[in-house]
Amino acid sequence: MDLLPAESSQIKKHGFRSLKLVNANMDDVLAEKPFGVDYGRLENGLCYYVRSNSKPKMRAALALAVKAGSVLEEEDERGVAHIVEHLAFSATKKYTNHDIVKFLESIGAEFGPCQNAVTSADETVYELFVPIDKPELLSQAISILGEFSSEVRVSTDDLEKERGAVMEEYRGNRNANGRMQDAHWVLMMEGSKYAERLPIGLERVIQTVSADTVKQFYGKWYHLHNMAVIAVGDFSDTQSVVELIRTHFGDKSSSPDPPLIPLFPVPSHEEPRFSCFVESEAAGSAVMISCKMPVDELKTVKDYRNLLAESMFFHALNQRFFKISRGKDPPYFSCSAAADVLVRPVKAYIMTSSCKEKGTIEALKSILTEVARVRLHGFSEREISVARALLMSEIESAYLERDQMQSTSLRDEYLQHFLRNEPVVGVEYEAQLQKTILPHISASEVSKYVENFRTSCSCVIKTIEPWATVTVDDLKTVVSMINSLEEEQSIPPWDDEHIPEEIVNMKPNPGDIVQQFEYSNIGATELILSNGMRVCYKYTDFFDDQVLFTGFSYGGLSELPENEYFSCSMGSTIAGEIGVFGYRPSVLMDMLAGKRAEVGTKLGAYMRTFSGDCSPSDLETALQLVYQLFTTDVEPREEDIKIVMQMAEEAVRAQERDPYTAFANRVRELNYGNSYFFRPIRIGDLKKVDPFKACEYFNNCFKDPSTFTVVIVGNIDPAIACPLILQVEFQDLLNPVFHFSRDDLKGLPFTFPSTIIREVVRSPMVEAQCSVQLCFPVELKNENMMEDIQFVGFLSKLLETKILQVLRFKHGQIYSAGVSVFLGGNKPSRVDNVRGDISVNFSCDPDISTTLVDLALEEILRLQEEGPTDEDVLTILEIEQRAHENGLQENYYWLDRILRSYQSRIYFGDVGTSFEAAFPIIRNVKKSSIFVKQIFHYYLIIIAAQVQEEGRSKVRKTLTPLTAQLALRRILPFPCKKQYTVVILMPQRSCFKKLKLFIHSAPNRYSRDAKVSPMLFFLFFFYFLLFYPEYIGWRERRIDLVISLTRYTCFGRWANPHFSRHGRPDCFGSQFVEIFTQFTEILRVCLFRHKIVIWKIGDFQQEQGYTFFLHYQNIGGTYHFDELNPQRKTSVFTLRAVKGDLKDYKSAKKKKKKEKKQMTNTIHFVIKIKRIDMYRKKRIESLLDNKKRLSNQNIAKF
Fold it and tell me: Looking at domain 38-250, what is its CATH homologous superfamily?
């Protein structure tokens, strides 16, 4: 259905659709020189790329690329390439003590984790995004890149200061995703050096590598011949930028004979590799299939055609995967395929699927079956036409915005040209090639790429599960079965479902514009439609192929009773999976092929919203989706509900396994109380969810258009857009379903604790992680609301900057820190104060978390008492100004700004009510005066928009060290230490790990102060052996617990100073309690069928000449390391610490009693064991069933 008026035909005729085809031969060679850039090499070998680009204005995207990565490291250098990257920002010849970071912040440039540099296996890239409105800024930024190239300072002090940050980055990488990725990398690269050169490195190298080793690596591989400088920005003259590069790099000498970058081959293999990876913290079960192959060259037009055909293959295959995931009883929740360059010589075809627990075999069968189906029957012409339309739509959008490409995007293209030899031919020529080639790529040509997914093509098949349910043999069986079905051609062809041609079946009657307002100060126009909907649009020329819109209405989940909350809160999720716009997602996907139009919904606490993003030429389609949203109902079917609820249950279970979810839940519970709104959904809540109620609530949320305000921003032509808006206008309901006034909304109950709370959340972890969140309450008074909201933004950036300086740059113990503000719990009142919180978060070493919290509190208190420096204030002002300048060039910024104007405190949706509340001075004017109401409404929008900017400008003008100090005192509790919450996520270690940690940390913690005796240690040791048997491993009916106390002298030297004369330990009070706590979960023994096998305490390293041994006896008889006598009710153990070894002790027994005492210093400890009911056979057998799981958690070694 074509609803576009005649004038809109112009939009379809210009640009891409009128672009001429190119007459290219398949053997034509693509240009080696990159398009649109000044490109060359200096005499010393440095390569440079310089291009002028005005998006964004007065900004430059810079990069230094080095063809040196982790694969070049030797065994004792594993992690050094990454350490060099860190040291570059720490100190160079010209800059010391992180002066580079201070400079970047002082000019408003970005600095943060993964923003300024990245180290991979093959290269290291340093990136800067800087303002250039002052002539010296660009020169100084390029000089910094010059420092990185050859002047990085590598001293012992610099290295020691940076180890903590690198270790924290290493620790952050050792989460569930990091472990899964690392394991998959090793499996894929097996047999090559890449497998042993993960960029993050090894912990022991990070902790112990010397400065000389780092300096040697830096000097060996950082040569100008292997580097390139890329500069893309709003330059008036590119040659002047080339001269700047020549100035800062030209005098640097390069080695006359630099080492060649070696190639490290990755061997292929015909037999597939299998892996069943068990990750207890995994977010869910998954299947990964990867097939390696050499990286294809891209030199000719034929190569480019092959690249397009490959892209069409993945689009077509992903369309099938998506439809299967939305079918009846799907084998997986999602599945996608893509090609990815892994390392310089190798790329891979990868298929990844997420599935239900114990569903990996079913998912693997489905994926392999679909791949085999494509090999047997290929893709249909319809599938190819859909894929072709998608690619054509993507290149059309790129072509229309070819003059509005971000400088960072262009910079990345030139990086790939230098690092991967990828040609850069320009968007216009690329669009011509695609428009010429795409229509001639056939289904058979696309289908042949499925051959790269054969299991004989260096294939790796891997499953990921929270606990083991499948084996490698199971995977091999599936592969063999699918291969047999393919050989027998027993797999039927793909069955395409019917796809409707039109989104809107019946042409609606056009509506009318009742009122229209022009707001010249923000360049916007407001329409009041006949159905009551308010539409405000603003034309921008930031992007030629972008239109954004958002519609909102007051009234959300806060209006619901508690017993309906969880059901209704899932309404948007359930509806999205079933189909929101009157069609199933799999059908709608094909209907929108080749169109760029997306619409999504959200149900919030106080608002219901829909948002969209589309091309100007597809605005009609996007508005049709909005029309369908309001005029159709989501009608769930039983099979749909089953799938959606299963997906939700899997997601909830994954959250329950995630340590960070437990951490975040506790933070919310502390800061906002145990309110049902802030409480995460649990399995018990999920079982109470009524999907039909959820869909009914969702349908009612988008029924009444009269309550919605819609803001549209982008490349919108009013002559085209207004008729489209009216054409799809839907009528107002006679009986509104949801019609709420913002002043009558129910607020969410939440109260910040009035006292100090410091709490540790311990969660089981495979590897130790620690995260800290420090929160302060915030209350903004109504009378200073506009200024204080701006102050909160400035102060949060100030706190983030200063805490990062203290914890990272001064103490070197964290990688990054963030400060965030939450004010979203308040209802949109016009007169109430606003409450919320400011949160400081960072990750660190678990052992020093409390110390770092205290340091952060001290720094915040110092800022409250002394205030920031002038430099600090200027820095945050500059950062904010640069972010504001960038935002002014983005459609998202203006969309948000106009929405905030409608939602501000001075805007009254009812003009009559606003008249009384805001302008009492003109109360004598008749309320029925439509003209006065219109004038008043006009000024309300203008004032609301201006107040935001005026508040920002006022704060900027008045922000000084003194006003910042006063704002910190006013907005945060003063002193800050009187009211706050701290939640620290800490690992809950297994018992053996706790024992090992205690033993190895005790010399530093207790050896001089606590004076813990070995007798006390083994007192606890035996106590927990008796009463907590689960964590010891079994070998049939025998338990061998071998403990190596390499530093057991930490518990005392066995000499009398550590004991009173009567043998009592000289350690009580808090130290005694701390030690006792350490042992409350340590070491348990299993009694099996009333029998116990005595453990050996052996392999002790002697220290100061003492040896332990254990003696066992039953009452009435003595046995050494044997079974308990089941006829006896009491058994005795004796522990002795003997001077010398056991042989010396036995020989001493033959001497006189006096001589024996002189030779040995023996401590005796006796404990009686009684048989009790807790050691029932049933319990022990239950524990034995968990033997494999305990082993996987490294609780015991069998």
Answer: Metalloenzyme, LuxS/M16 peptidase-like (3.30.830.10)
Select which of 73, 77, 85, 859 is catalytic. Answer: 85
Q: Structure tokens of 511?
A: 């509506």
Which residues make Cβ contacts (< 8 Å) with residue 1068, sequence separation at least 6?
Answer: none
Q: Characterize 424-444 residue by residue with b for buried, 16 or more Cβ atoms within 10 angstroms of its Cβ, and e for exposed.
A: bbbbeebbbbbbbbbeebebe
Active site residue 162: yes
Topology alike, domains 273-488 and 757-921+956-987: yes
Pick the closest to residue 732 from 703, 711, 702 (CA basis): 703
Kindly give the interhelix angle for 930-958 and 870-887, rounded to the nearest 10 degrees.
140
Confidence tier at 787 by pLDDT (50, 70, 90): confident
**Among the four given CATH numbers 2.130.10.120, 3.30.830.10, 3.40.50.20, 1.20.1340.10, the one describing domain 273-488:** 3.30.830.10
pLDDT per residue as tens digits for the range 999-1042:
444 433 333 333 344 555 555 555 545 444 433 333 222 222 22
Tens of pLDDT, residue by residue over 685-719, are 888 889 999 999 999 999 888 899 999 999 999 99
pLDDT of 1113 reads 37
**47-52/227-233 β-pairing:** parallel
Question: Strands, E, within 241-302: which ranges?
Answer: 273-278, 285-294
Please, are residues 199 and 27 in contact by the beta-carbon 8 Å criterion? no
Say if residues 98 and 242 touch (Cβ distance below 8 Å): no
Cβ neighbours around 910 below 10 Å, total: 13
Tokens encoding 873: 């204030």
Strand partners of residue 92: 152
In this structure, are residues 153 and 159 in contact, taking their beta carbons and an 8 Å threshold?
A: no
Annotated catalytic residue, options 105, 147, 162, 620: 162
Distance CA 873, CA 798 (A): 8
| pTM for the whole structure | 0.79
202 neighbors 79 (Cβ within 8 angstroms)? yes
- Which one, of 1095, 919, 952, 926, lies nearest residue 1021 by Cα? 1095
Angle between helices 381-400 and 427-437 (to 10 degrees): 160
Instruction: List phi, psi (to 5°) of 20.
Output: -75, 150
Task: State how far the Cα of 113 lies from the Cα of 817, in Å rounded to an integer.
Answer: 9
Question: What is the model's pLDDT at position 468?
Answer: 87
Amino acid present at 326: R
935 sits in which H/E element: helix 930-958
| Nearest partner of 308 among 193, 402, 430, judged by Cα | 430
513-726 folds as: Cytochrome Bc1 Complex; Chain A, domain 1 (3.30.830)
Residue spans of the domains in the chain: they are 38-250, 273-488, 513-726, 757-921+956-987
Task: Indicate the DSSP class of residue 496.
Answer: P
Burial class (CB within 10 angstroms; exposed 0-12, middle 13-18, buried 19+) of 1155 = exposed
Of 507 and 565, the one with more pLDDT: 565
Res. 240: pLDDT tops 80: yes
The confidence band for 1153, taking pLDDT boundaries of 50, 70 and 90, is very low
Range 757-921+956-987: architecture per CATH: 2-Layer Sandwich (3.30)
- Residue 1119 CB partners (closer than 8 Å, separation 6+): 1094, 1112, 1113, 1125
Q: List strands edge to edge, sheet with 285-294.
A: 273-278, 459-465, 285-294, 346-355, 334-343
Question: What kind and span of H or E run contains 553?
Answer: strand 547-554
Distance CA 1182, CA 1185 (A): 5
Q: At what angle do helices 785-804 and 849-866 cross, to 10 degrees?
A: 130
Cα distance between residue 606 and residue 556, in whole Å: 4
Identify the residue whose tokens are 């209350």.
779
The C-alpha atoms of residue 808 and residue 1099 are separated, in whole angstroms, by 42
Q: In angstroms, rounded to a whole number, what is the distance separating the alpha carbons of residues 324 and 977?
A: 56
